Known about the structure:
The chain is an alpha+beta fold. The protein has helices at 2-72, 141-146, 149-153, 207-217, and strands spanning 77-80, 89-92, 96-102, 111-117, 132-137, 157-164, 167-180, 183-192, 195-201. It folds into 2 domains: 1-72; 77-217, Protein Transport Mog1p, Chain A, CATH 3.40.1000. Strand 3 (96-102) and strand 4 (111-117) form a beta hairpin. The longest helix has 71 residues, at 2-72. The model has no long low-confidence stretch (mean pLDDT 86).
Amino acid sequence: MRHHSQRGYIDALLIPLIVVVVLLIAAIGFGGWAYSGRNEYKNHADKKIAEAVATATQATQKADAAQYAEDAKNPLKTHVGPEAYGSISIQYPKTWSAYVIEHTTNSGVPMNDYFAPDIVPDTADQNTAYALRVQVVPVAYSQIMAQYNSLVSAKKVTVSPYNLPKVPGVVGSRVDGQIAANKQGSMIVLPLRNMTLEISTEAQVYLNDFNKTILPNLTFSP
């Protein structure tokens, strides 16, 4: 009788012990799983943070470089053309160079100026897209604009009325699109006495300078 009593006592103790062991194993397993998950989350989060920091750093460096490039363009340079062709005054970034062809007679193109960052490429190369072209053409304004009729019909260019901010009394046209073969840009066409003044940028990359620096500052005597 005593033997059965002791066995029952042992069985009564064994069950709780087994439960405790099972719970302990489960707790250890859960702890290991939680620790592993925490490490995995931490590593993933650290990677995301590192990527975000790298992206932010690159964006800051790019913005700083862009701002430096803009600041380097000032103060602006000024070029004034011959009085016979309207004393055209052009202000352009100091980081650009100019190559000017200006005659005092009406033969050929009286004024044909090229502008580009750093150095001006070969002007004989028809494929070069210049940051800025300024030309006085010995052809009437109406004849020049008639040349764009077919391009407008083909939807290769758009034409709208335009006047320079500093010469509001002279109304001409702005041409946007394929202003020349293989060149997408913008051109301002203005009547200049019995001739025509053309101001253009031959690549979209220079459009910001064209709109914000060149056109607001350009003047001439009608």
